[in-house]
Fold this protein.
Amino acid sequence: MAVMKKYSSIPEYLADLDSATQTKLKSLMQIIREEAPQAEQTFAYGIPTYKLNDKNLLHFAAYKTHIGFYPGSSAVAEFKPELKSFSTSKGTIQFPLDQALPANLIRKITRFCVQSRQQ
């Protein structure tokens, strides 16, 4: 069983990834920063996380064939029709690395998460 490396910062996490995956994650992070400028970057559950008002907003992680995006179960349920072409589970969306990131959808999901955390 492989031991998962522990990271202390998102830049350190990104440095261990190939350049194509780094580029995708940087694009993802840029969208999150634009839609949730007040969110802070941190680590939770061993993966990059954005927090808002001391609550987890979104998580993401790079895997061999996809980017795991973790907006929570309410966001996955809210956007279910738009997510039909992606693998999902209760609070997880998988964006394949061999496809372009769905920037507009990520933007809408991030906005939804921000609004949910502010209520």
Q: What stands out?
A: The chain has a mean pLDDT of 92.
